[in-house]
Amino acid sequence: MNVSTTKGTASVDPASFGKVGVLFGGRSAEREVSIMSGTGVLEALRSRGVDAHPFDPGTQSLAELAAQGFDRVFIALHGRYGEDGSLQGALEQLGIPYTGSGVMASSVGMDKITTKKIWKFDHIPTPDYIAIEPGTDLDEVLVSLGLPLIVKPPLEGSTIGITKVSQAEELKAAVELAAGFDAVVLAEEFVTGREFTVAVLGTGANARALPIVEIVAPEGNYDYQNKYFTDDTRYHCPAQLDPLLSEEIQRHAVNAYRALGCEGWGRIDVLVRESDMRPFLLEVNTSPGMTSHSLVPMAARALGISYEDLCLEILASARLKMAKV
């Protein structure tokens, strides 16, 4: 499996990027983490001589964004209004090149139900699921998926609103919790096994996977707290896996990334079932975290790519996706 290199970004003249905006903060439930990501990216770019400036769409308007005169922007926003295609559409209208996926891929990638529909169609392994709408018979959900199962809002990230349902009587409350975020709720087959993530860099035929990271969370609970605010979660990179299984996981991750039309960079979360070591892809992150605990920088370090060089490579990929060639 081909892996990423920095492709000479370390030798790029920082002035060639022009005035760069680092977009972070925003209005989503992941605002706090986005601020940490964006602050790290801002400091990294500035350390390499890039004329980088912070911009928070959560407190500043699109008119202010247009007035800044940015030549390109690095999107370090997570969740709604930053990772879901809405901001990408605004940047296309403003003519400001940006990092990451375009409008469609961002929107589709943010919606776990739509993502799974596409992956199922393309024969990419993902756990079975049911979309729960008002009026859905919850007993039928239990019969179809069995217990335990996972209930989550399909348009949130960072494990927000997610519940592991182990008893039938817990399902109604889990659905109500997730419905507080999204009108349609995702119920998903629970896969018992090891948890991994695969960072992908590039676009189209040039997309390539970085080394796989294994996530070992306390009691198997990789929740919001254990993701970002504790040192109890352990990470192994490169993950200790049979080489053939590693190649299979990386191949699935790249195919899943391409199936959604992702660009620039992203991260695919994967479970490997304990009973038969079969991989199942859970979701894609089209604007992954860039905090001190984040997994894309960890995977890059395994290849000898520094955090600063990773930020430069991502920034170098910024472009308008809808512009005429």
Automatic annotation (TrEMBL):
<keyword id="KW-0436">Ligase</keyword>
<keyword id="KW-0963">Cytoplasm</keyword>
<protein>
    <recommendedName>
        <fullName>D-alanine--D-alanine ligase</fullName>
        <ecNumber>6.3.2.4</ecNumber>
    </recommendedName>
</protein>
<keyword id="KW-0133">Cell shape</keyword>
<feature type="domain" description="ATP-grasp">
    <location>
        <begin position="116"/>
        <end position="316"/>
    </location>
</feature>
<dbReference type="Pfam" id="PF07478">
    <property type="entry name" value="Dala_Dala_lig_C"/>
</dbReference>
<dbReference type="InterPro" id="IPR011095">
    <property type="entry name" value="Dala_Dala_lig_C"/>
</dbReference>
<keyword id="KW-0067">ATP-binding</keyword>
<comment type="function">
    <text>Cell wall formation.</text>
</comment>
<keyword id="KW-0573">Peptidoglycan synthesis</keyword>
<dbReference type="InterPro" id="IPR016185">
    <property type="entry name" value="PreATP-grasp_dom_sf"/>
</dbReference>
<dbReference type="InterPro" id="IPR011761">
    <property type="entry name" value="ATP-grasp"/>
</dbReference>
<comment type="similarity">
    <text>Belongs to the D-alanine--D-alanine ligase family.</text>
</comment>
<dbReference type="InterPro" id="IPR000291">
    <property type="entry name" value="D-Ala_lig_Van_CS"/>
</dbReference>
<dbReference type="InterPro" id="IPR013815">
    <property type="entry name" value="ATP_grasp_subdomain_1"/>
</dbReference>
<dbReference type="Pfam" id="PF01820">
    <property type="entry name" value="Dala_Dala_lig_N"/>
</dbReference>
<dbReference type="InterPro" id="IPR005905">
    <property type="entry name" value="D_ala_D_ala"/>
</dbReference>
<dbReference type="GO" id="GO:0016874">
    <property type="term" value="F:ligase activity"/>
</dbReference>
<keyword id="KW-0547">Nucleotide-binding</keyword>
<keyword id="KW-0961">Cell wall biogenesis/degradation</keyword>
<comment type="pathway">
    <text>Cell wall biogenesis; peptidoglycan biosynthesis.</text>
</comment>
<dbReference type="InterPro" id="IPR011127">
    <property type="entry name" value="Dala_Dala_lig_N"/>
</dbReference>
